[in-house]
Amino acid sequence: MAAAFPEITKIQYEGPASANPLAFRYYNPEEVVEGKTMKEHFRFSVAYWHTMRGSGADPFGPGTMWRPWEGPVDNLENAKNRVRVAFEFMQKLGVEYYCFHDRDVAPEGATLAETNKNLDEVVKVLKEEQERTGIRLLWGTANLFSNPRYMHGAATSCNADAFAFAAAQVKKALEVTLELGGQGYTFWGGREGYQTILNTNMKREMDHLGAFMHMAVDYAKEIGFKGQFYFEPKPKEPTKHQYDFDVAACINFLRAYGLGNKIKMNIETNHATLAGHSVEHELEYAAAQGFLGSIDANSGDLLLGWDTDQFPTDVYMTTKIMLTLLKYGGFTTGGLNFDAKVRRESFEPVDLFHAHIGGMDTFAKGLKIAAAIREDGTLEKMVKDRYASWDSGIGAEIQAGKHSFKSLSEYMLQKGDVTPNTSGQQELYENVLNRFVF
């Protein structure tokens, strides 16, 4: 087929002085930082649903995107052609991974059998393109939220048939993820929650969600899928009370249902802010608990208040993300998936390149800043000094398990009062960070 982006060649690294909008200024895939190349640090991935299926529609109007490769009807042939366009885009961009929902890549049929057949046909093309380009599937997932059958949820639906259909859909999604060599699978609970407790049996719904995940894990073992499972927090999207509200809620759920050693977190920046957290908080919490898996890289607009899924352009944010990743040894599974879409007004195909280049450069700059901060050691020493009371004396004894309430009460009765607190020095910490950012 003819090239979809004939005017664009492979995006190259040209360095910080470059003014070429179709070149990387900071992302040099082979540059080594802290013992790994940039491409190994990031494992960048393109989100098929936004990049290839985003139309620009919003609640106030239809789609605006000009996509000359799209046919007048979204049939099977159009879906196959779209795959080839997607791989041309990814190859020219220079990413090595992609992610998809089952319904992104293949149209839904009149029956489940027809839908599965459509997916099988498109998977053949995906395999061909993976073999041609070397691009791999980072993780797959199933769309259990768009079809009206899931209006009450999927695994948490009050309708047992909806649960059963979702199970059949995930079964197939796991099979094709395995066939494509996918490195993981994400539970993406778009409607796993409720609007009012008046019509909801919360305990029953959560029990069903736990059972559903166990079925998925069991089936993965049955078919030989050894990829990592992920659970993605999704606050306010779209139900008022999501069971997967934030990282803490998700980890608590996984442990409560005996899934803590089977599933890690896929953390999205914009979902963190919707939950009232920063993304670095969510990453630190997950990493400290041993649940850090993968990242959906995007950003939100704090003035709008919904999941705007914008491309990341804030170097402060990417620096903090990379500080956490480097601190915990980087990705052992997963990667940075650009779960982001161009703005409704950015409707030309070339804008897809501009957006991804900007995001990749912003993360590359953040990585280099984070590595410089770690090499300098000032920030790390300041934090260590702040907790110095725990490194010796009573603090070290408490951490070693040598005390009880009774012994600590005796200690304080003898001492009389606490050692005076020191300043938190937030402004100084921020100034130290700024010293590296600009």
Describe the structure.
It is a single chain. The chain is an alpha/beta fold. Helix content is 46%, strand content 11%. It is built from 16 helices and 14 strands. It has helices at 38-42, 48-51, 76-93, 102-105, 112-133, 160-179, 202-223, 247-256, 269-274, 279-288, 315-327, 350-376, 378-386, 393-399, 405-415, 426-437; strands at residues 12-13, 23-24, 32-33, 36-37, 45-47, 97-101, 136-141, 184-187, 193-194, 228-231, 241-242, 263-268, 292-296, 336-338. The strands form four sheets. The protein has an eight-stranded parallel beta sheet. Strands 1-2 form a two-stranded parallel ribbon. Strands 3-4 form a two-stranded antiparallel ribbon. Helix 11 (315-327) links the parallel strand 13 (292-296) and strand 14 (336-338). The chain is globular and about 80 Å long. The two termini are 46 Å apart. The mean pLDDT is 97.
Mean pLDDT: 97
Give the oligomer, counting copies of the same chain as homo and different chains as hetero. single chain
Number of H- or I-type helical stretches: 16
Assign a percent range to the helix content.
40-55%
Secondary-structure element series: EEEEHEHHEHHEHEEHEEHEHHEHEHHHHH
- Uncertain regions spanning at least 5 consecutive residues: none
Number of strands: 14
> What's the gyration radius in Å?
24 Å
Instruction: Describe the sheet with the most strands.
Output: 8 strands, parallel
Proportion of strand residues = 5-15%
Spatial sequence of strands, sheet with the most strands: 7-6-5-14-13-12-10-8
Tell me, briefly, the overall form: globular
